[in-house]
Write a structure and sequence with these properties.
binds zinc ion, Nucleotidyltransferase, domain 5, Tnp_ISXO2-like, alpha+beta, single chain, elongated
Length: about 350
């Protein structure tokens, strides 16, 4: 979380510094920064209450009406910068119309310093989710919306008429956003008196893949018994020195951990946890009623959601992250939730 906090603090500073420069973008009539998912005022606890219920019609009618409207909305939402200072003279830049960019707007400064005129221009996308994409802002927003709605990549590609590699890239950017969001989560799962089920499971040990046996990937995970908060981490080994640091990172001290009798867990009590065992060779539920049914169900769902083609090791964690992110936010508006997460990562302006 430290990184995200730093980035947001930086963004807050920039914003305060630039409030007086708002007039330069009056042509777009940008409203106040206090919008439903923009700005630094919100924390992760109350954001759900403020999430809008997005439908495609709403997005099209409210946001995608024109290039100007898209820019105005993105600024309002904190997805792109509302103002910029010139790197040459440190004065506010002007948002000007231009024909040579798909956005049709850019930041520009043509002021004179000591009688010498300079020309500095930057993209309105700099430091944002939209940077480094050849797609228009409209296309990126549509892609993001459909991705959040879990529309198949092939369908999105068809609707946007984009190249296969562009769709693959954006699919992976979206998954990476989930991955970073989960990595930087402020609060570990569990807590004093809360039950967390842990387990390990092997993914992808399916048959043969083009004549080669797919070895599979061990994954270690945990889930709160009473909520949808969970974690999964791909691991190379299942020994104590691998799993204990993961437990300490993801599960709050004082939690009640329920697991099977795997030897890597024997010292959990020494590390600030209450440990309850279920001996799977003898029982599914121990005499006190503890079980690991929820984490086992979690594995089944996760395995169904992993792509059926062989996922390269490097992408494996991001597919897990997408599954966990969707699982945790089930029932919420995922487009709003996703944009909220995007802003925590891409707000270098
Ligand atoms: Zn300047």
């Amino acid at each position: 979380m430290e990184k995200a906090v730093q980035v947001c603090v930086k963004s807050t500073k920039t914003w305060k510094k630039n409030t007086e420069t708002q007039t330069v973008i009056s042509s777009l009539e940008v409203k106040s920064v206090d919008t439903q998912c923009g700005g630094e005022k919100h924390d992760s606890y109350n954001r759900e209450e403020k999430l809008k219920h997005w439908t495609y019609d709403l997005l099209r009618d409210e946001v995608l009406r024109s290039k100007e409207e898209i820019i105005r909305w993105c600024m309002d939402e904190g997805l792109i910068a509302k103002s910029r200072l010139c790197c040459h003279c440190d004065l506010p830049m002007k948002l000007v119309k231009c024909e040579d960019r798909s956005d049709k707007y850019k930041w520009e400064c043509r002021k004179s310093v000591n009688g010498k005129r300079h020309k500095v221009e930057i993209s309105i996308r700099k430091g944002s989710w939209f940077e480094k994409s050849n797609m228009t802002l409209e296309e990126v927003l549509k892609f993001t919306y459909w991705w959040c709605r879990d529309v198949r990549q092939e369908e999105i590609r068809h609707e946007l008429n984009i190249a296969a590699h562009t769709a693959v890239d954006w699919d992976s950017f979206c998954r990476e956003t989930c991955e970073v969001t989960l990595m930087e989560r402020e609060h570990p799962i569990g807590g004093p008196g809360k039950i967390v089920q842990i387990d390990e499971s092997k993914f992808g040990k399916r048959k043969y893949h083009r004549g080669h046996r797919v070895e599979g990937q061990w994954v270690f995970g945990g889930i709160e018994e009473e909520s949808r908060r969970s974690f999964m981490v791909a691991v190379e080994k299942r020994d104590e020195s691998t799993l204990l640091p993961i437990i300490e990172r993801h599960i709050a001290k004082g939690s009640i951990i329920v697991s099977d009798c795997w030897k890597a867990y024997i010292n959990l009590e020494k590390h600030g946890y209450e440990h309850r065992l279920v001996n799977h060779s003898k029982e599914f539920v121990n005499k006190d009623g503890d079980h690991t049914n929820k984490i086992e169900g979690h594995w089944r769902q996760a395995k169904c959601k992993m792509p059926s083609f062989g996922v390269r090791k490097i992408a494996f964690s991001s597919y897990l992250a997408e599954f966990l992110w969707r699982y945790e936010h089930k029932g919420k508006d995922l487009f709003s939730t996703f944009l909220w997460d995007v802003k925590k990562i891409y707000c270098e302006f």
